[in-house]
Amino acid sequence: MTIAAAISELAGFLGDRLSRAERDLFGHGRPKNRAPFLPPDAVAYPETTREVARIVTACAAQGCPVIGRGMGTSPEGHSQAMRGGVCVDFSRMNRIVEVNHADMDVVVQPGLTQEILNRHLQSTGLFFPVEPGTNASLGGMAATRAGGIATVRYGSMADNVLALQAVLADGRVIRTGARARTPAAGYDLTRLLVGSEGTLGLITELTLRLCGQPEKISAAVCAFDRMRDAIDMATAAITYSIPVARLELLDSATVAAVNAYAGLSLEQKPHLLVEFHGFQQSVAEDAARFAELVDDMGGRIFRWPALAEDRAALWAIRQNAYYALLASRTGTRAVAIDLSVPLSRLRDAVEEIRAEIAASPIPGPMLGHVGVGHVQVLLLVRDQVPGEVEAASVLARHIVERALRLGGTVLGDHGLDGLSDMAAQHGPGWDVMGEIKRALDPLGILNPGKVVPLPH
């Protein structure tokens, strides 16, 4: 059994849709962040579920690893080929299969992106609410259980995938869930596959929950003198049940970087970006309550953009923050560390981390989905400067340990280098995950090295 034999068989029915060109292998092995360069041996471009099943069946017969890939936007190396093999690129499976207006759901193929779906839905009065901050594929979003800037109101992919179709490690095609909103009897296989990072099956179709486009949208930018005040404001908004649709945090270093990157003039202080969705009267009332709280917390609201294009420019600040921070320190790469803790512990966690970063040789600006207790620390590392890589490693370890100690969870770090963190978080439950993996994928061919321990 060899990878070469599997590739030879795949070439027989995929033809030029199986590539071994250097540019394809490089493009599918190049990481976006700190993950190592791990290219596959070949890249397959299927167009149907049946073709995906044939690919997996052929690879299973030869013990060849199979790695699913969407847009490759994940910075944690979820689609890196740790043991070589065949990368299944879903970019050609990008159709909208069916929009069910009355039932407010849509059936899509996994290679379709969130932005393209919402452009298609614009005239229907519906939209898909999960916004990861980049134009990711919906299959990849489901496989990584993505959240984003609207999670505080609409939830993550775990809350918005109603059903799916997947190819298992032996080539079987299964359907899980249903379009009905009432839970079905039996194990929730949909939730099991959502977030499994392609280690239990390759998702080939998704049924997604849609929402009605809000009648009124209102957004604001708020500045605070201290980071703790911004976090306290976010906590208060959630505690008092103000129905924010988006609630994002930028620390002062991020604001300075965004100003320089986009030619803006925001105060160089911590900021909250907030948005409300709903009917005209309810949005006005919610925004007024939020403004009162901001005033009580010593903050200042200085922008309520009325036009859609002005709101888009406001959220472009958040979406471009990553690139602005990279540009703020030449010759750097960003080591992104996610911290997600109960909301009541977020201020303490952030203050501890900020103190530790201040004592280190590298900057670590913060931003994130503060409304759900999630911030991201971007450690800006210059590999060529002695000591910075080591300092980043220590900081990353301490951030993860702090999250677990405060009752939080491991998020992005469960890609290539976070398996020890998974063990620390889940304890014996991680062993159960391994047992599920071995039951569904006894050869360990589906995205090996992710989520559960590598088989010997």
Please characterize this protein's 3D structure.
- The chain has helices spanning 3-14, 22-29, 49-62, 114-121, 138-143, 151-154, 157-160, 189-193, 227-239, 252-262, 280-296, 308-319, 321-328, 346-358, 388-405, 419-426, 428-440, and strands at 18-19, 42-44, 66-69, 86-89, 96-100, 105-108, 126-127, 161-167, 173-177, 202-209, 211-212, 216-223, 244-250, 271-278, 300-303, 333-340, 366-368, 374-381.
- The chain has 456 residues and is α+β, with helices and mostly antiparallel strands.
- The protein has three domains: 3-91, 2-Layer Sandwich (Uridine Diphospho-n-acetylenolpyruvylglucosamine Reductase, domain 2); 94-212, Uridine Diphospho-n-acetylenolpyruvylglucosamine Reductase, domain 3 (2-Layer Sandwich); 216-405, FAD-linked oxidases, C-terminal domain (Vanillyl-alcohol Oxidase, Chain A, domain 3, 3-Layer(aba) Sandwich), CATH 3.40.462.
- The chain has a seven-stranded antiparallel beta sheet, with helices on both faces. Strands 5-6-10-8-9 form a five-stranded antiparallel beta sheet.
- A hairpin with a 4-residue loop joins strand 5 and strand 6.
- Helix 9 (227-239) packs antiparallel against helix 14, helix 14 (346-358) runs antiparallel to helix 15 (388-405) and helix 16 (419-426) crosses helix 17 (428-440).
